[in-house]
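User: Please fill in residues for this 340-position structure.
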């Protein structure tokens, strides 16, 4: 709907109760949506909007909060089959009662549709249109459907993009390599930017594996570099290798949590000064300010460690888990604390 049609509908609404239906309401911009709001609040119109997008992304918050949201889920296979069977005899469908279809042909169309009735009917129509002519009554077989469609491409809209990426990351974090490779394959098949996928793998390697297996980050970065040099389709192989490695690796978010806690402290608390013995002492006049005075060079001491303050008020942010290599890190840190 354009702004003119919406204004005309609102003018009509002033003369009585009006039901205003807007298909693809996500295409109505925010200014137009704001214009509808007072008429909805006044009860002058009953607004019905349909969309394939997430309404909480597509609608202004004021309009979404005043709406009842009805979600239409994909149809079950048996429901798709019923629709396909009706299409053969319906005047609005194929309208050819003499056309026969093998059960496995209908089954393939049902599978390819992913629960979308419109897609199922489109596949059926294409398959019937490409049937050989002059061979008597039409007979739709599995081979005809396969030839007409060639291959199935994953359905991928804006909302599905976010949901699929979320499922992919959570599968790696949740240590499920099979789910991770499944969602990775869907993204690649749907035409997702492979470098976007590679960046998510790198982030997951650091955020969710971290020092429990430091090699995970190396594997992820190597996969991204390999993708950059080879491109698709071959570049999908190192992405798969990295995703599986991260899913199978021991997990720790200790580095991520340490950064989050330290950042919160910086932003919300008094910022500490740099201790005098840690300040730069390489410029002219540094000695006159006692910059760097009293600093102890760790490599001059046993075990390459010496106890000294690195913050005026010491705090602890990094708390290594007992997973993977972080178990060793915990032991090293505990040993050093005993020497302080």
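Assistant: Residues filled in for all 340 positions:
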């Amino acid at each position: 709907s354009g702004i003119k049609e919406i204004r005309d509908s609102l003018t009509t609404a002033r003369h009585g109760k009006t039901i205003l239906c807007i298909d693809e309401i996500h295409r109505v911009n925010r200014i137009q949506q704001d214009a509808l709001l007072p008429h909805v609040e006044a009860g002058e119109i009953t607004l019905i909007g349909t969309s394939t997008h997430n309404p909480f992304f597509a609608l202004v918050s004021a309009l979404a909060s005043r709406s009842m949201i009805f979600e239409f889920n994909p149809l079950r296979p048996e429901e798709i089959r019923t629709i396909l069977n009706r299409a053969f005899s319906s005047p609005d469908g194929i309208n050819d009662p003499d056309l026969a279809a093998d059960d496995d042909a209908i089954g393939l169309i049902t599978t390819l549709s992913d629960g979308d009735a419109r897609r199922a009917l489109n596949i059926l129509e294409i398959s019937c249109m490409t049937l050989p002519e002059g061979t008597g009554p039409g007979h739709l077989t599995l081979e005809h459907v396969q030839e007409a469609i060639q291959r199935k491409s994953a359905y991928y809209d804006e909302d599905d993009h976010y949901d699929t990426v979320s499922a992919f990351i959570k599968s790696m974090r949740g240590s499920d390599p099979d789910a991770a490779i499944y969602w990775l394959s869907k993204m690649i098949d749907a035409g997702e930017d492979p470098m976007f996928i590679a960046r998510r793998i790198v982030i997951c390697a650091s955020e969710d594996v971290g020092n429990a297996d430091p090699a995970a980050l190396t594997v992820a970065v190597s996969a991204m570099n390999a993708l950059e040099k080879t491109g698709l389709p071959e570049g999908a192989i190192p992405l798969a290798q990295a995703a599986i490695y991260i899913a199978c690796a021991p997990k720790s978010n200790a580095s991520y949590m340490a950064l989050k806690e330290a950042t919160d402290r910086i932003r919300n608390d008094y910022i500490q000064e740099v201790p005098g013995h840690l300040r730069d002492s390489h410029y002219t006049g540094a000695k006159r300010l006692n910059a760097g005075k009293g600093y102890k060079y760790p490599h001059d001491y046993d075990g390459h460690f010496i106890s000294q303050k690195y913050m005026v008020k010491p705090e602890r942010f990094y708390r290594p888990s007992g997973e993977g290599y972080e178990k060793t890190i915990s032991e090293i840190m505990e040993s050093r604390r005993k020497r302080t």
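For context: The longest strand covers residues 18-22.
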